[in-house]
Specification:
- Helices cover 51% and strands 16% of the residues.
- It is of the alpha/beta class and 802 residues long.
- The strands form six sheets. An eight-stranded mixed sheet has the order 13-24-23-18-22-19-21-20, sandwiched between helices.
Length: 802
């Protein structure tokens, strides 16, 4: 049956989200969602109104990067991705700059009240020492136009002061402006230097919006509309001044160094020139052309070249020995000693050697990183170590080959010098000495000229400002605050309020375990819903197209006009009411529930009291009587039956008296006059017995039903709630069918499920269920994709619209 129900209702899979169901949930809880949105928006508006405005100002600085020099080290710097602008941005954020700005502007002192007033409007001057202790102060205006100052931290009064007069505080000094007289009370505090610096760094932001432009923006936020632009300007000026000072200090050091070197070279040059002049005079050297020959010059050059090569060979041989000795005991975690070979000038100029050095450095860095996670014996580390040893061997081979080449050159020069020796034996030694002295003087002269040039460049750099950094746009007074942003806060509050309200709506629906729709009833019971009964409302004649509230009319019962017929019997008092139509639909559905064997004895029950079973039983009985059926309505609730009050009848004699044999059934049955609708027979509960369940399940009850079925077309029995007592379950086994009544927005799903278990346990024949007290204005959004079944629009169908 469950499969048939699922197919008939078009149930969706559990993992499918029905957007209409979600929409209906939101519409049902629209007041809750709207209330949450309204509350959050109101709080956001109140916050925006009460919050002190926050201002922002920014200054822009241009920082030009110096292009690195060409060569291996310049190339390595470029590959490393170093950026001078990024470095200077970190300097702008540094604590050193922040400390200087805090000290310049006295940011340790902050104004607490009045709010929304710049500090400069109160204090004409502020000086705070770094070591000033934390304290709170209050300034009050006195009747004589002066101001008393009190230290709230210590409770001491510092005296009275006039505007323009310096006020000495503990570690600070302030001067009140004349505008301070506009406020009767002023509160301010002094925080520690460290807190002030930290607060500045939090509110200060340094950014580079365009990566293609070397322009840095320094932004600062504050509630003080004056300090907000003075702080970024102070940061920019402090940074530029510090950089200028560093540049001038470097230039000053360079100038001092160059001047010392020039003094030393000047003395050496003078000595060399004096020696050359003395040699010329002592040796009577007038003209070199007369005494010098090509051989002499060639011999001197060869000898100089030979000496240079011998020196280079000895140095390289010594370096190679040291490197090989160091490589013997070197650890894998230490840099390779073969790097020292590249420092040798001749090898350094070799392109292949430079490439080997870069490869060796990269492999060593990779091995060092790998050693942080693995041991030296790891295969990956061993592979890198082998590659490093290969590169070291290549470097050694290059160095050895170059050493052999130098040795060969020295041997060749020695042979050449031997050949020239015989020729030069005839050349005076003074000529060689003269050439040496002249060459030494020339070299010193060139060095002297180079140092003089560098000195002039350093002196120029010391005198001029650093052009690589300059302030482009200083910060200005902000026109309007950036916070609070009322429109943004309202929109954000609307979003948050909607999210909060939606979450509350879903939580509310999750917590709601009551029945609302026929799908709920059908899913839990597994039987068809035979009736959807709207809420019974007291209505009177229409006014302007709408029914108005009126009292229930008196109806004749056994010839007597009585108001005991009550509002719940709507089928008797207002046959054209939509509720009456709903009961007629229930009558039709019951008739065709078993077309081959229509039920005669029908038990009405519910999970819990108040679900409307008695009302449904009575109205259905009236509807059947109106159709011309011979109907008997039995109040089988022998614990607290109420139908006798509804019809204005006595409780005794009744069903219990008949079952106990103290009265005849014909005497216990009452005939209720329904006026034009006919008559209805009614059997009340009778005397309330101590054992109603036993009476209802007895053979006498079964025999009584069989006898009454021969007399009446339909017998309707109103039984007690299932979840409280077993009367209805026992009675259902003796009847042709059971109708279980659930009340919308009242009956719990668990209660209905438990009631069905009671009926299934005794194998009672369940005809179907009835959903009672449906308020379509309230429950119209619970219908899912089935809508509201048209009942809301049908509510006034057929009514007078005068």
């Amino acid at each position: 049956m469950a499969n048939n129900v699922s197919q008939s209702t078009g149930a969706t899979p559990e993992d499918e989200i029905d957007l209409r169901v979600v929409w209906n949930l939101l519409v049902r809880n629209r007041l809750l969602i709207g209330g949450c949105v309204a509350i959050v928006v109101a709080l956001a508006a109140l916050y925006s109104y009460l919050s002190a405005p926050v201002y922002e100002a920014s200054a822009s600085i241009r920082i030009d990067e110096e292009k690195p020099a060409l060569g291996i080290f310049g190339t390595l710097d470029m590959l490393a991705g170093g950026s001078e602008v990024s470095t200077e941005m970190e300097v702008l954020r540094s604590r050193t700059v922040a400390e200087a700005v805090v000290e310049q502007l006295g940011l340790q002192l902050s104004l607490r009240s009045p709010t929304r007033v710049p500090r400069n409007a109160i204090f004409a001057n502020v000086i705070v020492d770094r070591r000033a202790p934390e304290a709170e102060y209050r300034i009050r205006a006195t009747p004589d136009g002066r101001h008393s100052v009190e230290n709230l931290t210590t409770g001491a009064t510092l005296g009275t002061f006039s505007p323009g007069e310096a006020i000495a505080l503990d570690g600070a000094s302030v001067v009140l402006s004349r505008a301070a007289a506009d406020w009767g009370e002023i509160d301010f505090e002094i925080v520690s230097f460290a807190d002030a610096v930290e607060n500045l760094q939090k509110k200060l932001s340094v950014s580079r919006p365009n990566r293609e432009a070397n322009v840095v923006f320094v932004r600062y936020e504050s509630r003080d509309s004056i300090l907000v632009y003075r702080v970024p300007n102070a940061v920019a000026r402090t940074f530029i001044d510090a950089r200028q000072e560093i540049q001038k200090t470097e230039a000053r050091s360079t100038v001092e160094f160059l001047r010392g070197q020039i003094d030393a070279i000047t003395a050496q040059l003078a000595t060399a020139e004096d020696a050359l002049q003395a040699f010329r005079e002592n040796e009577q050297v007038v003209s070199l052309e007369a005494q010098a020959t090509t051989q002499v010059t060639r011999l001197a050059d060869l000898q100089a070249e030979r000496n240079a090569l011998e020196t280079e060979r000895a140095a390289l041989a010594s370096l190679l020995d040291e490197v090989e000795s160091a490589a013997t005991g070197a650890s894998p975690s230490t840099p390779s000693p073969y790097r020292r070979l590249v420092a040798f000038p001749s090898l350094f100029r070799n392109q292949a050697t430079s490439e080997l050095l870069r490869s060796l450095t990269a492999l060593e860095n990779e091995r060092a990183q790998l050693l942080n996670r693995r041991t030296a014996a790891h295969p990956d580390v061993a592979v890198l170590s082998e590659r490093i040893r290969e590169l070291e061997q290549q470097l050694r081979t290059i160095a050895t080959t170059y050493l052999q080449g130098i040795t060969s050159q020295v041997a060749s020069l020695d042979a050449m010098l031997g050949r020239y020796g015989e020729q030069l034996e005839r050349i005076p030694a003074k000529e060689i000495q003269f050439a040496r002295l002249q060459r030494q003087a020339k070299v010193l002269e060139e060095i002297y000229l180079l140092l003089q040039t560098k000195l002039k460049e350093a002196e120029i750099a010391q005198a001029v400002e650093d052009p690589s950094v300059r302030l482009i746009d200083p910060a200005v007074v902000p026109i309007k605050p950036i916070k609070p942003r009322l429109v943004f806060n309202i929109l954000l509050a609307m979003v948050l309020g909607t999210m909060l309200g939606t979450g509350a709506a879903f939580a509310r629906e999750f917590m709601d375990t009551t029945i609302h729709t026929r799908e709920d009833v059908q899913e839990i019971t597994g039987v068809p819903v035979l009736g959807n009964i709207p809420r019974i409302r007291e209505t009177g004649p229409s006014t302007n197209g709408r029914r108005k509230v009126s009292a229930a009319p008196a109806v004749s019962v056994n010839g007597t006009r009585t108001a005991g017929f009550e509002m719940r019997l709507v089928t008797g008092r207002d046959p054209r009411n939509p509720v009456s139509e709903a009961y007629r639909a229930l009558r039709t559905n019951i008739t065709f529930a078993r077309p081959d064997e229509p039920p005669k004895a029908i038990v009405f029950t519910s999970p819990t009291p108040g679900d409307g079973k008695s009302t449904s039983a009575a109205n259905l009985a009236v509807t059947l009587a109106q159709q011309g059926h011979k109907v008997l309505l039995v109040d089988a609730d022998m614990r607290r039956g109420v139908l006798n009050n509804v019809f204005g009848e006595d409780r005794e004699p009744g069903l219990s008296n008949v079952l106990l044999g103290t009265t005849d059934v014909a005497r216990a049955i009452r005939s209720v006059d329904l006026g034009e609708s006919g008559t209805l027979d009614f059997l009340p509960t009778g005397t309330l017995p101590p054992n109603p369940a036993e009476l209802l399940g007895s053979t006498r009850m079964r025999d009584l039903l069989r006898r009454l079925e021969g007399t009446y077309d339909t017998i309707i029995l109103d039984a007690p709630p299932l979840n409280l007592v077993t009367d209805a379950a026992v009675l259902g086994t003796n009847a042709d069918g059971v109708l279980i009544v659930a009340r919308a927005a009242t009956t719990q799903k668990g209660a209905l499920h438990y009631a069905m278990e009671q009926l299934r346990n005794v194998r009672a024949p369940v005809l179907g269920s009835v959903l009672n007290d449906i308020d379509y204005k309230r429950d119209m959004r619970y219908g899912g994709k089935y809508g509201t079944y048209g009942m809301y629009s049908y509510e006034y169908y057929g009514m007078d619209k005068a």
